[in-house]
Hints:
By secondary structure, the chain is an alpha+beta fold.
Amino acid sequence: MVHDPDHLLRRYQLLLQISSDLTSTLDLPVLLNRIVQAAADLTNAEAGSILLYDEVKKQLLFESASNLDEPSMRGLVVPVDSIAGWIVNNRQSLIINDTMHDPRHFGGLAQSTQVTTTSLMGVPMVANTKVIGVLETINKLEGQFSQDDMDLLEALGSQAALAIENARLFQQSDLISDLVHELRTPLTSLNTAAQLLTNPRVNDDMRQNIVRVIMSETGRLADMASDFLDLARLESGRAQFQTQVFEFSPLLEECASLMRPKAQERGIYIEMDIPGEQLMLRADRNKVKQIVINLVSNAIKYNQQNGRLVIWAGQVGGNVVLKVSDTGAGIPPESLPHLFKKFYRVPGTERITQGTGLGLSITRRIVEAHGGQISVESHVNQGTTFTVSLPQKLES
Ligand SMILES: Nc1ncnc2c1ncn2[C@@H]1O[C@H](COP(=O)(O)OP(=O)(O)O)[C@@H](O)[C@H]1O
Ligand SMILES: [Mg+2]
């Protein structure tokens, strides 16, 4: 076989280009299609194909091939004693330049595709030490599959495995699809506003209004981004907790001072009913602060003008209990079961005040991460009380 370093270099350049191509899509079918195409191109073969390993069923499933358009073969089960099965079990790449005489060759695909396989190369696709499938190319166009071909296909295989894992994780995450869904509304408003601004008939007054909308919607997007990151960290277990023993009452005073200007804007005086003696807690102080701020900020936002807001704290058994009460419009009983779901806002809230609907989800996650509990009691037209109970955990 002629060894052509220039040619090899070109193929590695192609590989680099493909890699950045792969990371740019999270759509699994599109991704698989790109991978098999790339496999065939890179190794100068007639076709490339991908089989994914189903760990639960212990099955190899045919997913995609560059020479097939129709999805009829998708999900076809490939026997474990096939060549692909051998690759999964042995975690090793394989070249067979004479497929016809290898007993492991599985004819099932050839039968349905009319493609005769004469030579075959396959590599295991490994992501995070797990074999997730096999990448194959068949029928070398000129000569035989070489070690260079195998090196290239292995490199592509590991890139592909990571890209596939990413796409799968992305597809499984409700959080992401919820976010994408929620982003539509502000983006649509921004788009409409921008279009309106280009209309010459829009006068100065209207223009100012439109700019106000743009500012408020971009603000909401920014809030969403930071709330969303907080929630994503908490949900995935990536949030870091720094526990320390601290006094609860000074923390409440701190939160009240922070929130006082906002309360004053609405004529609300924050009443504090908290113990003078030491009330100790072992927890992540900043995250507990976030709990208090979220509840107090809701009690301000959803209160009536000049309403009452009471922060109560005390020790009950081995728990520190916090109650935040307001005299707002209350929450209708049918909304209560949804209140702690992400992005949920009581119908009609949008008209009263801006928000992301993530505050209470974050709050509940933090409370639960501390082994605590949160509950709500509300009476329409009277007000709402949120109660948080956190175990003191002083002895540990
Ligand atoms: N104290 C309260 N009084 C009345 N409704 C409330 C109160 N706190 C929360 N809510 C309702 O619960 C929804 C979710 O709250 P939250 O998760 O903090 O999101 P956000 O405040 O961004 O809307 C709010 O949109 C509101 O409809
Ligand atoms: Mg809120």
